[in-house]
Amino acid sequence: MSQTITSLLNKTKIDPSWSFSDKTRKDTAYITHGYHRYPAKFIPQIVSRLAEKYTRIGDFIVDPFGGCGTTLVESKVMGRPSVGVDINPVAVLITKAKITPIDPKKIEKAFN
Ligand SMILES: C[S@@+](CC[C@H](N)C(=O)[O-])C[C@H]1O[C@@H](n2cnc3c(N)ncnc32)[C@H](O)[C@@H]1O
Known about the structure:
Elements: H1 2-11, H2 25-28, H3 44-54, E1 61-63, H4 70-77, E2 82-84, H5 89-99, H6 104-111
Parallel strand pairs: 1-2
Helix pairs in contact: 3-4
């Protein structure tokens, strides 16, 4: 079995354009992505590239292990309705904070 996996991996052509190794924290923390750290988080560029490649505007995206909502933020920006699920209530709280639009007037009022 492990030999089969090894030979499969050896035959697999690696596309270096999926590495995103040039991305800095600043590159990956745009919009609300930088609100809070979360373990094993996707970088948003992976999500947007996958959504661009495999979905169209209006397609429904589901992330059953949603973590801190990277998929949901990118889906919203890209015009794809989405739903995420996570067993961790902290992940759900962070996600809600990241995807809930706030009226700029409310922010200005609170700031003042
Ligand atoms: C690697 S993280 C996902 C990170 C996410 N892709 C992001 O970019 O923020 C995996 C998530 O799966 C969640 N998880 C693990 N087991 C689960 C289960 N049985 N049901 C729902 N969520 C689960 C964990 O709480 C964790 O937040």
